[in-house]
């Protein structure tokens, strides 16, 4: 049923002149879904308060309630065609009354951690792009048929929403900034081995894929009431610079079942890393920070290793944001492992000395659809310096692309072998003592490739190498 509803909404939006692309689709669907979710949440809270004999004060009241402007009902529960807003009247109400009212919550909320504040932030960032009140009316009617009352319903809606985010990510470069393949995220989570009670942080959270997958990993039917409360309010933390990504991230977490996400709309890199205190640190960091960039000098001043490469600044931030003994999994361009510029060398040295970089996952071309760079995932634990590094070269045995993306089975062997850090055709260990102390080069050089390839060199091949090749041919 929900799939049909989403498809109908999409057909409606194709006719809306204010909706230009997949990013607009997700953005405009988000604010409508968000308000319906809030209505269902408030209805549930009001019913619970009535059973407990207490008075419930609604967050959204009066003419701004969903059942007053979006889906007015008669006393018998039928749709009220006499009072419903349509056409220009509906657009005027949304633009001039509803959005300003909801945006004002940002000033009136008691704390940034409240759902009131999140509502204010969302509607400060967003603007309504519907131009036809008739198309908006059709979308409202469709969304009114969705229910957020059970975990199963929220799960189905979250999966449909994730599908739209993935399509947005595939639609272009900007959308791709917000989407990390979920199988890769799940593998990173399994290796990092999350536990209830630990805090989890993503300083470049985008659509909050890492936080949502971490919630799904930790959320089980065996949780106690206190553990569930911890999961809801004291576990997931994120920051996001871009307005659209921030809004989508909040909506994504809400649909996954987190009522008031601890997301902050700010530029993480504006924080001086030397000012980070113990109270600011986290047990777990999961992230895929943006790379490229070209950060301004005033932003670079916040870091001991100054560089315009955004990902390098984020990595410095993450190292300092981890608690002692904290664990991290961070996606970064594979050129970080071998670049010879001063910043790259200094940052590799700092990572090896400040943390135990125990695993590097080398991802194949096409892991990130539309991206022209290869990536690796760095797994490290803060505290003791690095002793040795286990490398794994992911090879799904096929070319990855839009119609043939990475899947969970592709990463199953990596997750299984990482527990024991076993050597094999795709995995090997490099000792810290064997690294070049002037460059700290961590290039992915698999020593287990066929001997003929390893022996290939500009100079004349050695007799030992040729004897090995001939021996294999005879056998």
Task: List the keywords.
single chain; 475 residues; alpha/beta; Ferritin; Rossmann fold; 3 domains; 9-stranded mixed sheet; 19 helices; elongated; disordered C terminus; transferase; S-adenosyl-L-methionine; restriction system
Give a written overview of the molecule.
With 475 residues, this protein is of the alpha/beta class. The chain has 3 domains: 2-149, Ferritin (Up-down Bundle); 173-434, Rossmann fold (3-Layer(aba) Sandwich); 451-475, no CATH class. It is built from 19 helices and 9 strands. The chain has helices at 2-14, 22-52, 66-69, 87-103, 105-108, 115-125, 133-144, 151-171, 173-176, 182-192, 209-218, 225-233, 243-256, 297-300, 310-321, 342-354, 408-418, 451-455, 463-474, and strands spanning 200-202, 236-240, 262-265, 282-287, 322-333, 355-362, 375-382, 388-393, 427-431. The chain has a 9-stranded mixed beta sheet, with helices on both faces. Helix 8 packs antiparallel against helix 13. The longest helix is centred in the first third of the chain and has 31 residues, at 22-52. Residues 10-104 form the N6 adenine-specific DNA methyltransferase N-terminal domain.
**Rg, alpha carbons:** 25 Å
Order of helices and strands: HHHHHHHHHHEHHEHEEHHEHEEEHEHH
CATH homologous superfamily classification of the largest domain: Vaccinia Virus protein VP39
Q: Please give the share of residues in helix.
A: 40-55%
Low-confidence stretches: 452-475
Which CATH class of the largest domain?
Alpha Beta
- The proportion of strand residues reads 5-15%
